[in-house]
Amino acid sequence: MKFEVTILGSSSATPVYNRNPTAQLLNCNEKFYLIDCGEGTQQQLIRFGIKANKIDFVFISHLHGDHYFGLIGLLSSLHLNGRIKPMKIFGPPALEEILALQFQHSETVIRYPIEFVATQADKPVQIFENADLTVETIILNHRIPCTGFKFVQKKRLRKLIIERLEADRVPVEYYPLLKRGADLDLPDGSTLLNADYTTDSERPRTYCYCSDTLMDERYFESIKGADLLYHEATFLQDMLERANQTHHTTALQAGQVAIATGAVKLLIGHFSSRYKALPPLLDEARTVFENTELALEGNTYSVP
Ligand SMILES: [Zn+2]
Ligand SMILES: [Zn+2]
């Protein structure tokens, strides 16, 4: 099953050096989840050949503009392009009001249903579930209420070994039970052992998105054991004081978070405009956590 994230924007605060503000697109089993939607996200989708109408879920971490200024434009374009299927948006309570005000004053009546779910930044809770995954909030420590999002794949059914089932003429009506892991007692008194006819499904994987935050042990439990951890790394460690003042993290700290929480792989992003070249941020994070990559726009990272 596909479980991968494409970076649409990795800049903090303002667009600079061809870097756009934060946005990511998660593909889980060909369902598309937009995570944050900075200004220019629509253009980035076009640039990377992704159809915006494939997105059915939007998750907004907080109300700093670099994380949601692209949303009204995206929603409006979908309306103009004739979308009719619903869109589900998760974000801070005031986002609903902000969107409503923008639609109201442009006298836009969006022709597709928008279902808004308000997130709360006080304790981590599950906010979404479908057949493929669950989504929980991660409570971050930023200047305004801010949540990250933890996407956890569901355990899949066991895989059938079709050749063996056919060779032994096992009736197809038993297949669903076998997929669920059951041994089968047949009418003739014999037993079919599940292990002979199925193999284990893929291990469920986890993607954690840690948007703007101070490094804070209080959210470590939430992101423990992430297969892929995205963590902001706005500054280098020599700017720690500035990072603390603005409630951001350094690249070194992002590496420390990855180690402390047992991540498999770390992706860093939300780069300050003071860094034209990004390799120093990567090098710094790698001094503590080797399996780190830069969140580069247009790149797709599979959850390992
Ligand atoms: Zn930001
Ligand atoms: Zn912010």
Automatic annotation (TrEMBL):
Residues reported in the UniProt entry to bind Zn(2+) 1: 62, 64, 142, 212
The entry's keywords: Endonuclease, Hydrolase, Metal-binding, Nuclease, tRNA processing, Zinc
Organism: Pedobacter africanus
Top-rank lineage group of the source organism: Bacteria
InterPro entries: RibonucZ/Hydroxyglut_hydro, RNase_Z/BN
Known role: Zinc phosphodiesterase, which displays some tRNA 3'-processing endonuclease activity. Probably involved in tRNA maturation, by removing a 3'-trailer from precursor tRNA.
Gene this chain is encoded by: rnz
Cofactor: Zn(2+)
Cofactor note: Binds 2 Zn(2+) ions.
Similarity annotation: Belongs to the RNase Z family.
Record NCBIfam families: PRK00055.1-3
Pfam hit, one: Anti-Pycsar_Apyc1
Binding site for Zn(2+) 2: 66-67, 212, 270
Protein name: Ribonuclease Z
Keyword presence, Nuclease: yes
EC number: 3.1.26.11
Reaction catalyzed: Endonucleolytic cleavage of RNA, removing extra 3' nucleotides from tRNA precursor, generating 3' termini of tRNAs. A 3'-hydroxy group is left at the tRNA terminus and a 5'-phosphoryl group is left at the trailer molecule
Assembly with partners or alone: Homodimer.
Keyword GTP-binding attached: no
List of catalytic residues: 66
Gene Ontology molecular functions: 3'-tRNA processing endoribonuclease activity; zinc ion binding
